[in-house]
Amino acid sequence: MEVFVIVVTTPTGDIGGQVLDRLLNSGEAVRVIARDSSRLPERVQAHVEVIEGSHSDAGTITKALEGAHSLFWLVPPAGPDNAETARRYYLQFAQAAGREAARHDVRVVGVTSLGHGYPGEAGLLSAALATDEVFENSGAPYRALALPFFMENLLRQAPVMKEQGAFSMANAAGRPLPIVATRDVAASAATLLMDTTWHGQARIPLVSPDDLTPDTMAEVISEVLGHTVHYHQVPLADFQAAMAQRGMSRTAVQDFASMVAAQNNGIYEAEPRGTASVTATGFRQWCKEVLKPAAQA
Fold it and tell me: DSSP 3-state assignment of 99?
């Protein structure tokens, strides 16, 4: 019987790790690309084939795709002192992968940004959309999971919500901000990776059933945590200054600032989406099941 091998990038990351768990629980044959295999949990090391290296390296991706039938693709975040533009960084990863996926007829499920068709510069989001073009132009079978703001981005502020009753971002307080839970992204990715019937290329927007602004998110958080939590909108210039003070390169600061400016300018509304795009996890449910335990820890 032919064995269908699924290749997973970023296996120790938030989304990649959840995808990997779902595949292993389903009994799939999995191969992972990892810079450092020692960071993989023992359960994973015992049940996967490991290709050591970076998936930005042509030799590594070529080796990983030999005999594979599908690939989970996600570009890892660059270091804060990375001086390259986000677009250049992302494309360094994608070009060899697109070529090799097309050569081996490997189905690629990629994590990208919602906002295809947005006319302006969007920093990290533009870089992700440029990656889609590489896979699309390669001719490889491709499903782009087009995503908005991750709910999990709020987790790093859980202690502040508990201790100071506030959280802050540079996103507009009164503008709806489409969101998604990473567990819903992982579920969709795993389903597509295990499906051997699809062909061609398509975009799949994934957005929670909520229509919340940061201000109304604060109201939900307050109700779930049991005390008042306010949202504070940081001016974009202050947001940039804070990132620079933390040691981020000038290029990285600009890419992040361009991303937030595009979010405030409606990039996520630029791409059509229908009822099939609505995911299972609502914001209140996520706050109860994920944010509240994190705040209480």
Answer: helix
Residue 276 lies in a domain: yes
Which tokens hold the place of 149?
């703001």
Domain count, the chain: 1
Tally of CB atoms within 10 A around 39: 11
Can you list the alpha helix ranges (DSSP code H) found in the chain? 14-25, 42-47, 58-65, 86-104, 124-138, 158-164, 182-194, 214-225, 236-245, 250-264, 283-286, 292-296
Asked if residue 110 belongs to a domain, the reply is: yes
**CA gap 207, 282 in Å, rounded:** 9
In DSSP terms, 147 is beta-bridged to 113
Assess whether pLDDT exceeds 80 at residue 227: yes
What's the order of all strands across the beta sheet hosting 48-52? 48-52, 29-34, 5-8, 68-73, 107-113, 142-147, 201-205
- The CATH number that applies at residue 52 is 3.40.50.720
Question: Is the pLDDT assigned to residue 232 strictly greater than 80?
Answer: yes
Please tell me the pTM assigned to this model. Answer: 0.95
Note whether 255 and 185 are within 8 A (CB): no
pLDDT band at 3 (very low <50, low <70, confident <90, very high): low
Residue owning tokens 């009164």: 174
Residues sharing a CB contact under 8 Å with residue 47, sequence separation 6 or more, in sequence order? 24, 30
In a domain, residue 232? The reply is no
